[in-house]
Amino acid sequence: MTNRNEMVERKKALINARKTMGKFEYLQLINFEEQKSYWIHLFQPKLEEILKINSKPTYEKIEGDREENYILWIQDCLSFLKNVKEWLIGVPYCSVWANVRVLDYAKAIEELWLFSETNSFLIADKSSGIIVQTFSEEKCYEIHIGKSDVTK
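Predicted structure:
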């Protein structure tokens, strides 16, 4: 019975994820990543490390600035993703990962900021093994960047 419930929950999550992805103009859905995929398994330990309470951010910015300045700051900090045309993202408000085509780097970052819960979002690059998690923590906006070994 649990397997059936899991399948129903997954289907609901995929329906919600498809609706959410329909809001994006500059991230084009390629497909949804399977829950037990190699990539999710590869990135999960680094993501867990990033999400630990005392993890050190790669970049941080004190809250209180204008929204457009945060977006520009994130675009600058993540400029190494500028020429990467496909990302694996955590779909906002869903427990689903999606492979997406990046149509415009700056606009895609802006959309992730605008459409994500509390401006928190997740991007991974399969080609380099880099994973990025952004979130707000104690009056500070943080960007955490980690790297997984894609050669395994």
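Summary: The longest strand covers residues 140-147.
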